[in-house]
Design a protein that fits this description.
Layout: H1 3-6, H2 11-25, H3 28-35, H4 54-69, H5 77-91
Helix pairs in contact: 2-5
């Protein structure tokens, strides 16, 4: 699936798919890099979870993001969409976003 195919999906669909992939891959860096550009600008450099608890740390980070942004990417939405599409292309296989 190429970027133009993925671009047809809503930001919410892309986010769901990319977050699920990153959670499955335990990809802490994806979340940190993405959230550094959010409207709430989480202080990601202070977050350094123990590798054995990375799943809990990801859930905690997502909760902080949701609480701070109410789930709205605001002016960072174009960047977030690009990051989601890139991540899905690199790690997501051929299926379209699921919701």
């Amino acid at each position: 699936m190429d970027a133009s195919d993925l671009d047809r999906y809503s930001t919410s669909d892309l986010q769901h798919r990319a977050f699920a992939l990153a959670r499955e891959r335990r990809d802490w860096r994806f979340f940190i890099d993405l959230f550094r550009h959010t409207p709430t600008a989480l202080e990601a450099e202070d977050l350094d979870p123990d590798v054995s608890e990375i799943g809990v740390a990801i859930d905690d980070l997502l909760s902080m993001w949701r609480e701070g942004t109410k789930g709205d990417w605001g002016s960072a939405e174009p960047l977030a969409r690009a990051a989601f599409i890139d991540y899905i292309q690199r790690h997501g296989g051929e299926d379209g976003p699921t919701g």
